[in-house]
Amino acid sequence: MSSYQLVHLEIYNDNPSKSEKPSMYSIVSEAMRVDGFCPHVYQPQTPEILYGLDPRQLPDIAIERSKKAKDKKGRKVRKDAPLLLAGVISIPAESDIDFKKFLSLSLTFLKRSYGQNLASVVLHLDEAHPHLHFYAIPSLKDGGFSMAEIHPGIKARSECVGKGYSKKANAYKQAMRGYQDIFYVQVGSKLGMTRLGPRVQRLTRKQWKAQQAQAQALSAKHFDLTKRQRKINAVQKSVEAAKNEIQQRETKLTQIEKSAFFQNKEKMKNDYLRKRLSNSEKELAHFGEHAEDLEIKNSAFIKELKTLRKDNENYQRQFDAMAYKLSLKDEFILKLKQQRRDNNYEKTNSTDTSNCYSY
Q1: Distance (Å, whole) CA 153 – CA 178
Q2: Contact between 62 and 139 (Cβ < 8 Å)
Q3: What are the record keywords, sorted (predicted)?
Q4: Between the CA of residue 351 and those of 105, 181, 343, 356, 357, what are the distances in Å?
């Protein structure tokens, strides 16, 4: 059996004496099944906190934020200003809706809608219809604290500056309808729920059944599309994984090829250096042999030089002896020549003298 969606918002402050609504503390105490605050529940059960904090901590947090906040004119937050947003999401007990899917889609919707302002989500299973209670608190944005940050109706109404009450009220209603539409797109339609109930639409039972059947068909189609999308996503993931694996292999092959290239290059360089070393060793050995030959030849040359020096010394001594003999011979010859001159002179003088006596 299908059903229509039910999501509802309320706001609470810390001054319930001027309002018919209960205080924030009463609301969170009822949500956590505190004794004396849930007389409408036959057998209260401890609720399950699906997200965030224990709701009983939220009023103090909201009050603390509001005390620190000021408006653009520097004024503090009014005492009757709303501080806490509370909401309910429910499904009929007799509904055949997938309950786990209902919880998952609802939590996703709340996180998208309120972000960091979402403070707590609590599940109740001890009443006629299973439902969620959720709570959000405005943040200290630029030093301000306003429910318009998280409540779509109040936001739309606050943006109608300078306009009349009817226009503000209409903006509020349109924003809240938009909120219901968003919930239907993100949650209701995916669960086979209708956007509105039969009383609101003034439908006959036959028309209501037809609309339920259509909603269920849309839900089934959406489920089928979702299933196909999951398969497509799985295939895409496998393709991406295959691509990544191929890229990794290509990277490894490239690294191996580069490594092999550098190894070959280093090997060629090593072979070249080894060849040069071998040639150098051969040249050194040749130079060593040549040096030995030169050393042998040098020793023979030294010996020969010593012999030549000795021979030269002998020749020099012989030369000196011959030179001495020649000098003696020259002196003797000079003496003989002088004697011959002297003899000739004497003979000449003697001849001249004899000639004189003959006259």
Answers
A1: 9
A2: no
A3: Coiled coil
A4: 178, 183, 12, 9, 10
Looking at 32-146, list the stretches that DSSP marks H as alpha helix, in order from N- to C-terminal side.
Answer: 58-68, 99-114
Q: Edge-to-edge strand order for the sheet containing 84-90? A: 6-12, 84-90, 131-136, 118-124, 48-52
Q: Answer yes or no: are the C-beta atoms of 12 and 23 closer than 8 Å.
A: yes
How many Å separate Cα 202 from the centre of its chain? 59
Work out whether the CA dihedral 58, 63, 64, 66 comes out positive or negative: positive
DSSP per-residue letters across 207-264: HHHHHHHHHHHHHHHHHHHHHHHHHHHHHHHHHHHHHHHHHHHHHHHHHHHHHHHHHH
CA distances from 116 to 124, 138, 139, 196 (A): 23, 9, 9, 30
Residue reference for tokens 């086979």? 192
Residue 278 predicted with pLDDT over 60: yes
Signed CA dihedral, 279, 283, 284, 288: sign only: positive
Pairs from 307-312 (Cβ < 8 Å, separation ≥ 24): none
What token pair was written down for 320?
Answer: 């000196």
Question: Residue 180 and residue 5: Cα distance in Å, rounded?
Answer: 9
What string of DSSP letters covers 306-337? HHHHHHHHHHHHHHHHHHHHHHHHHHHHHHHH
| Rounded-to-integer distance, Cα 8 and Cα 201, Å | 18
User: Cα(283)–Cα(227) distance, rounded to whole angstroms?
Assistant: 82
Q: What is the pLDDT of residues 68-103, one digit of tens each?
A: 988 777 888 888 889 999 999 988 877 778 889 989
3-state helix, strand, coil in the chain (%, to 5): 65, 10, 25
Question: Would you say 75 and 95 are in contact if contact means Cβ atoms under 8 Å apart?
Answer: no
E strands in the chain: 6-12, 48-52, 84-90, 118-124, 131-136
Determine the Cα–Cα distance for residues 74 and 181; give it in Å rounded to an integer.
37
Domains of the chain in sequence order: 6-195 (3.30.930.30)
The pLDDT confidence band at residue 136, using thresholds 50, 70 and 90, is very high
By residue count, the chain amounts to 359
Contact predicate 71/141, CB 8 Å? no
